[in-house]
Specification:
single chain, alpha+beta, QueA-like, Thrombin, subunit H, 9-stranded mixed β-sheet, 6-stranded antiparallel β-barrel, 8 helices, 21% helix, 30% strand, globular
Length: 342
Amino acid sequence: MRTEEFDFELPEELIAQHPPKMRGASRLLCVQGEALEDRQFADLLQKIKPGDLLVLNDTRVIKARLFGVKQSGGKVEVLIERVLGEHEVLAQVRASKSPKTGSDILLAGELSVEVLGREGEFFHLRFNSEVPVLDLLERFGSLPLPPYITHAAEADDESRYQTVFAREAGAVAAPTAGLHFDEAMLQALKDKGVNLAYVTLHVGAGTFQPVRAEFVHEHVMHSECYEIPQTTVDAIEAARKAGGRVVAVGTTSLRALESAASLEDGLQAGTGETSIFITPGFRFRVVDVLLTNFHLPRSTLLMLVSAFGGTDEMRAAYRHAVEQQYRFFSYGDAMLIGKNSR
């Protein structure tokens, strides 16, 4: 497959720059094969059945962006990609010249950080403080909004670019399908007999990178860490036995579940690293329905939803969404996609 097969024209004005005034006040495009249905997100209550299981990603976005200077005085911007422990991180470092191994960076005017080395495109950094790095980021960092959002993070973003069920700190991008839910919607689903379960996948900045290779198979996928509790595995087994469907809330939940499922042993609880690259032809073993936002052209996530819902079907759905002026990307509208049986 060529990457250009997953390209499409998107008017800039359809890229949502701010969240809707209220969570859940967004549209919902329902896709089942070739059938398209324009609904509101509140209609999800009608689409999810008693006995279904919603699997949500409870990762929490950290304030991963910091600004500072090198020893030479040159300006730097640091975007944490992954927290490695109490004091060490992997990060993107933007500067006129890359900092050298062994040098120091001063961030936010008072945080001394040592450059330990490089790991591919990322720098291995150590914060020279007794305070855990997550606490330092909460105090000195800023929220890392996606590159297609043109304003700097504001007070509203600090609450709205975070799901209401976020618990485990570590992501540098939100699992955006979860942003639509408020507590009232979650309670209404439970009252209807829908079960909820959680996974954790810490979303990395690589989720925003377009596929630049000419052919899809040449792309090297970024790696992310995940955790699947035994309670979630048990809930999936119970839903299956009762005839319910597994509904992944977001591509991150789907990637965690499908990464942890093998042909021999089925879905396994535990922690792991995943660089799974889901493209058309992939065999889904766990997820029956996917709730997701609209994704970037030429992105791995557009390839994933094409694998799940059908390539031709997704092309038609995206054309429809553009024509009907749906809002795109992180703060945009949602899609509910049934797994393509072909």
